[in-house]
Design goal:
9 helices, alpha+beta, four-stranded mixed beta sheet, Hypothetical protein af1432
């Protein structure tokens, strides 16, 4: 067995190809960007969450790995992409001779990151959920024709700034959003993202923390 590092995953041609091709599929379906900008950010954020809350460097490294690979299942289909992605990741990591106990953590995290049917089942899973669901930003919107925006486009485009803050002393994980309410209302944000925010709340609790949501400096959760 081998101790797999994040750079082994990030520089793996097979993994990078699947991520790039998955994003092409999602683009054709009208979804926001899910390529390297997204997975890089999720990987870094997930690791930072765990380190800030006092978890080990190895757990943070596994969170980076899970974050980078979490959307790989979209190459199969958007529906149940978390589960198909977990199976793809299992096969790749097994071939790379990763420790089975660590494969189990990463695969469980990937398989549980979608708000449709996921739950925080380990620290890597909880950190991945928080990192993934907090990546809401204008630059992920592909559609350049504002007149044809649907509600998903409007809500994402309206987010001028998104920042996840972690306070170890107070055990707080705070998502701070700045939204242009001329583009999308706060109510529309909740209409689209309520289930995601509830999942973030559960993930923070799993890590021994409390999740807060601030929108335009107003606390909503």
């Amino acid at each position: 067995m081998k101790l797999i590092a994040y750079h082994d995953i990030k520089n793996n041609e097979e993994i990078c190809t699947y991520i790039q091709k998955s994003d092409v599929v999602l683009g054709l379906m009208g979804y926001t960007e899910h390529a390297f900008n997204h997975v890089d950010k999720v990987a870094r954020t997930a690791a930072d969450i765990l380190l800030e809350l006092g978890f080990s460097e190895r757990e943070a490294e596994l969170a980076r790995i899970a974050g980078f690979m979490h959307d790989i299942g979209n190459i199969v289909n958007r529906d149940r992409h978390a589960q198909s992605g977990a199976i793809i990741a299992f096969n790749i990591l097994t071939r790379l001779r990763m420790e089975p106990a660590e494969i189990a953590l990463v695969v469980a995290a990937i398989g549980n990151h979608d708000e449709g049917n996921g739950s925080p089942v380990n620290s890597i899973s909880a950190a991945l959920t928080l990192a993934d669901k907090s990546d809401v930003r204008r630059s992920r919107v592909r559609n350049q024709d504002f007149a044809t925006f649907d509600i998903h486009d409007r809500v994402n485009y309206a987010v001028e700034e998104s920042r996840l803050s972690v306070c170890r002393e107070e055990k707080l994980v705070s998502l701070l959003l700045s939204i242009d309410t001329k583009i999308s209302s706060k109510m529309e944000y909740f209409e689209i993202f309520l289930h995601r925010m509830m999942m973030c709340r559960k993930a923070a609790i799993f890590l021994g923390a409390t999740f807060e949501l601030f929108m335009n400096k107003t606390k909503l959760l």
